[in-house]
Amino acid sequence: MKTGRNSSSIRMDNLSLIMRHIATSSTPLSRAAIASMTGLTRATSSRLVDELIGAGVIEEFGESKPRVGRPAVMLRIKGGRNTILGLEVNLAYLAVYLLDLDGSVHVSRVIEHDSRDSDPAETFATLSKLIGEALASSPATPLQTILCIPGLVSEDHQGIVTAPNLGWHDVRPSHYLSFPGFDAGRLTVLNEADASSYSVLFSAPGRKSGIENFVYISAEVGVGAALVFDGEVFEGQRKWAGEIGHMTVDRNGPTCRCGSNGCLEQYAGFDSILRNAGLGSHVTLPELITLFDEGDPNVRKAVDACAMALGTSIANVLNLLDVGVVVLGGNLVSLHSRMQVILEAELHYRALAQRWDMTSIRTSEYGKFAASRGACLAGFEHFLRNLDKWNSWGIPVQFQ
What we know:
With about 400 residues, the chain is an alpha+beta fold. Helices cover about 40% and strands about 20% of the residues.
């Protein structure tokens, strides 16, 4: 049931509006400029600006010197105080990323870690240690912690329903994470592909990149996707949307861990590529690429099969959703140039719109930090839309 707007909610909307204008502007803004851009009166705009300054999210600096009239004090996002901590548990590594509201990166650390079929307690103990070491060099205490995992998350974004390749089911990360300043009440869990999509959707906190409709596909051992429409990530009724890895590409294909058979993951997942190439699980991605570049026939056949299956799956998605951009992440970044010809040929053959307008296939530019950085950007977007929630959490961003 919808309720009417009151003065408090309208005020918070206006605070968010001012914050977003300051965050997205390519040049510093004055109070007069903000009043003009938002349509608020100068008195109201100035009062709300003072409130944002008092809350410690923006600050005054310097003066403009116009040719005519009085100098104006400029405003900008205040750095060094409000940060969000993004974490990722990947099958092959653990990542920690600390992003500031002003867009600066305080921490970006990654270590190799085999999390496949791991003990959650051991993995989170290792991650907690890494976080503690990383935060020791930063003066800022994170406002929020966002964890990315390759699996399905609970509807309240507090738990992991299942992450088959990790071997985890019904896991509550808050029971295991422990590092200075950690508050379990401010922990959010996101699917890795959904989080990564925010690193495409936003170029900085609150600042859209200009790509509003796209599909983000990430492949490691598993294959996941995020669906983004009009700048919003579509999660689905149970928050499980985007499981492209379990889209059937061959009804007679090999059995998948999900219980079905012929899934995309059986061709595009890294373990499956190694298996299809007749290689052992000890072979790394760089080694696989070297073998491909040297012309190993079995490796080339496996990578070609990956390209065909991926092209078929993407074509199915494009025929259903009609988006113009596909972004590849994870192992697909390195494999893209080796798959490009077959992948694009399959798209052209199967995707209806390709005959008139070719879909842009891009690769993620953030490597192993795509998910953890995206998580931070997702957190800041929620912050800008829900300033009042931070009051209820009792964290050091207070609006009078």
